[in-house]
Design goal:
Chain lengths: ~110, ~280
C-alpha cells in the first residue's frame, strides 16, 4: 500500500512536470494531449472505485494548482471521471490495451 | 449495504466541499488560492530547468539553420541602421520639443510611475478549458494581482493570481477577459473580449460597435486606460474582419492580437512603483 502511494505520487509529479512544460507545444486539432487524464483513466480501469476516485481527485487538484482558474474545478471533474470509469471497469476486459485507449478517447475532452 | 451508503455519503460530502471551495476561490484575492504554493514552489525549479534545456536545444538547431539567412539580414540591417540614425537625430529634436510642450501642458505620463518587470513563461495551460500560463516571477519579486502583462508587440493579459515564486497570467483571448479599448483612428470606445470559438485560432472579438461607428479592416485597437487595470495606449491588435450578427442590428469585429500567443516566451509585467515598495504586503 505504501509503495503504491509513493509510486503514484512520483508518477503524478513527473507527469505534471511534463504536462506543464513540453506538452504545451503539441496539440492535435486544437486539443492538447493530457497525460494526467490518461493516468486517471488507467488507474480507474485497473483499480477499484475508491482508488479511481482518489487518483482522479489528486490529479485534478494538481492541475488546478498548476494552471487552473479556480481551485477545485479540475479536482471535481477528475473525481467523477475516476469514479465513472472505475464503475464501468468490471464490465470491460481491462487487460486489453485497446479498451484503455478507447476509454481515454471517450473522455478526452472532459478535462 | 451500509458500506455503500457510507461511500455515497462520503462522495456527497466531498462534492459539496469541493463546490464550496470553488465558490470561495472564484473570488478575487481569496486565500484558498495560496494552496497552489505547495506545488508551484516545488515544481518551479524543475519547470525552469526543462525550459532552459528546451531553449538550448532549439537555439542550437536554429544556429545551424540560420547562419546563411543571418548574413543577408545583417547586410540589410546595417543599411537600415544608417537610415535610422538619420531619423533618430531628427526625432531627438522633436523629443526635446515634446518634453517642453508637455511640461507646459502638465500632462501626466501614465508610464512614468510604472516599472517593467521581465519574466519568462515557464508553464502553459495544461487543460483545454482556460488560456492561462505561468511566469517565473511571484510575490517575492513584487508581482501583484491585476497587473497588466505585455510584450514589446502589445498587450498579453493580466495577472490573475500570484504565488510565492510564480504567478498565473490570463490572456486577452480567454473568454473570461474583457479589455476596455479604443479604436486608434476614431477614438471610439469598444470592448475586446475573448471568445470560446476564436481563442483556438488566437483571435478575440470586439464588441460594443455602434451602428454609426466607422470601423474597417486593418484599424489598430489600443487600450483605453479606463477600468484601471491596463494603462492607456498599449496596442492590442488589428481588426481582421467586421461581421454582422444574424439579427442585423449590431456588428462585431474579429481582432488579430499584435502578440502571437503560440510563440510567447518572455513577457513584461507592469508594476506600479508605489506598490513595489511594499513587496508582498496585502496583495493576495
Amino acid at each position: 500500500m505504501r509503495v503504491k502511494i509513493v509510486s503514484y505520487a512520483v508518477l503524478i509529479f513527473i507527469i505534471a512536470l511534463i504536462q506543464s512544460t513540453v506538452l504545451g507545444s503539441i496539440s492535435v486539432f486544437n486539443v492538447k494531449p493530457n497525460l494526467l487524464l490518461i493516468l486517471i483513466v488507467s488507474a480507474a480501469l485497473l483499480g477499484n472505485n475508491v482508488e479511481g476516485a482518489v487518483i482522479g481527485f489528486i490529479c485534478g487538484l494538481t492541475q488546478d494548482m498548476l494552471s487552473g482558474r479556480v481551485i477545485g474545478f479540475y479536482a471535481l471533474l477528475g473525481l467523477y471521471l475516476g469514479l465513472g470509469v472505475s464503475f464501468i471497469n468490471k464490465r470491460l476486459y481491462k487487460e486489453n490495451v485497446l479498451v484503455a485507449i478507447i476509454t481515454t478517447f471517450f473522455f478526452f475532452d472532459s478535462i | 449495504m451500509r458500506l455503500v451508503k457510507n461511500k455515497l455519503f462520503i462522495l456527497l460530502t466531498v462534492t459539496v466541499a469541493i463546490l464550496i471551495i470553488i465558490g470561495l476561490s472564484v473570488r478575487k484575492n481569496s486565500k484558498v488560492n495560496s494552496v497552489s504554493n505547495v506545488l508551484t514552489v516545488v515544481l518551479n525549479p524543475f519547470q525552469e530547468f526543462i525550459n532552459y534545456i528546451g531553449d538550448r536545444i532549439e537555439g542550437a538547431a536554429k544556429y545551424l539553420e540560420d547562419i546563411e539567412a543571418l548574413n543577408q539580414e545583417n547586410e540589410a540591417l546595417k543599411a537600415r541602421i544608417n537610415e535610422l540614425e538619420k531619423e533618430v537625430k531628427e526625432l531627438s529634436d522633436y523629443r526635446e520639443k515634446n518634453k517642453e510642450l508637455k511640461e507646459a501642458l502638465n500632462i501626466k505620463d501614465q508610464f512614468s510611475d510604472v516599472e517593467f518587470l521581465g519574466a519568462n513563461i515557464i508553464a502553459k495551460d495544461m487543460g483545454n478549458w482556460f488560456n492561462i500560463f505561468t511566469i517565473d516571477r511571484g510575490i517575492t519579486d513584487g508581482i501583484t494581482v491585476d497587473s497588466a502583462v505585455i510584450t514589446k508587440d502589445g498587450l498579453v493579459g493580466r495577472i490573475i493570481s500570484a504565488d510565492l515564486v510564480s504567478s498565473k497570467v490570463i490572456t486577452i483571448i480567454d473568454e473570461d477577459s474583457t479589455v476596455s479599448a479604443r479604436v486608434s483612428k476614431t477614438r471610439d470606445l469598444v470592448f475586446v473580449k475573448g471568445d470560446l470559438q476564436l481563442k483556438n485560432q488566437g483571435l478575440c472579438r470586439l464588441d460594443n460597435i455602434f451602428p454609426d461607428m466607422d470601423i474597417a479592416v486593418g484599424d489598430t485597437i489600443e487600450t483605453s486606460g479606463l477600468g484601471g487595470i491596463y494603462p492607456k495606449g498599449i496596442i492590442i491588435g488589428k481588426v481582421k474582419e467586421v461581421r454582422r450578427k444574424s439579427s442585423d442590428l449590431s456588428r462585431y469585429a474579429i481582432i488579430e492580437p499584435a502578440v502571437d500567443f503560440k510563440r510567447l516566451e518572455e513577457v513584461f509585467v507592469l508594476e506600479n512603483k508605489d506598490k513595489l515598495k511594499k513587496v508582498g504586503e496585502g496583495n493576495r
